[in-house]
Structures are given as C-alpha cells and as structure tokens.
From TrEMBL:
It comes from the Eukaryota. Signal peptide: none annotated. InterPro entries: Macro_dom, Macro_dom-like. This is Macro domain-containing protein. It comes from Alexandrium catenella. Transmembrane segments: none annotated. Residues 10-51 form the Macro domain. Pfam families: Macro.
Length: 125
C-alpha cells in the first residue's frame, strides 16, 4: 500500500506504529493521548485502510483510557468517519472538526482564526 510494494507488510508496520505509540503512552500512565492519523500523509497509503488499521489498534489496546486521532484535512476526516461508522463508533461532530482542521494554513493564520472565533463566542455570552 502507498509507496510500499508489499501491502501486507505495510499494514503490519502501520499497526505496529500505532501499538508502539499506545504502549509508550501507557507506560507513561497517560490518561489521554492525541495521536496523529498515522499513514494518512503524503506517501499515498490508502485512506480507509489506514483508518481501519488505526482504529483497530486503538480498540485492541486499552492501556490509555482516552485517545483522540488528530487529522489534518477534511478528506482524511471523512475517511476516518466512514470507518468509524462501519465499526459502530461515534466520531466528533463535523462542525467541531471542520473548525479545528489546519488544512495547510500557516500556524499564525490558524491561531488568528481560533482567537477570532473565541472573541465572537465571548461577546454572545
């Protein structure tokens, strides 16, 4: 999958990556973990397969009570959401996710957008 000629090996390596991240977080006795959507970047790994491997690893490894998968763009979120739906898992609300995505924005622009949105919320209270 992606740029790896052996799809079975690629899937195993991806799963092992998730398990290692989760194992290290559990060793640190982390109560929560924000983990990137591993395998969903520029190297061309199939999105739905990457999401399924990640979700299965998270479901199998219960050493960390709360795990969030951090996603860069809307297309990736939609792929993960489809896999969550297939497994009967709840995903975050689409509006909340859309507001949090970077979509390639420079960090300063993303932070300014967040601050602006927070200022709008404060004036409504």
């Amino acid at each position: 999958a992606g740029d790896c000629a052996n799809a079975e090996l690629a899937s195993a390596l991806l799963g092992r990556s998730y398990h290692e991240v989760l194992r290290e977080a559990a060793k640190l006795q982390a109560g929560s973990l924000a983990c990137p959507a591993i395998g969903c970047g520029v190297r061309g790994y199939p999105l739905e397969e990457a999401a399924l491997v990640g979700l299965r690893a998270i479901l199998e490894d219960r050493g960390v009570p709360y795990v969030e998968v951090r996603i860069w763009d809307w297309v990736t979120f939609q792929g993960w959401k489809r896999e969550c739906d297939k497994l009967g898992l709840a995903a975050c609300e689409e509006g909340a996710v859309r507001d949090a995505l970077w979509e390639g924005e420079p960090l300063a622009a993303w932070q300014a957008k967040r601050v602006s949105r927070e200022e709008q919320l404060c004036t409504l209270m």
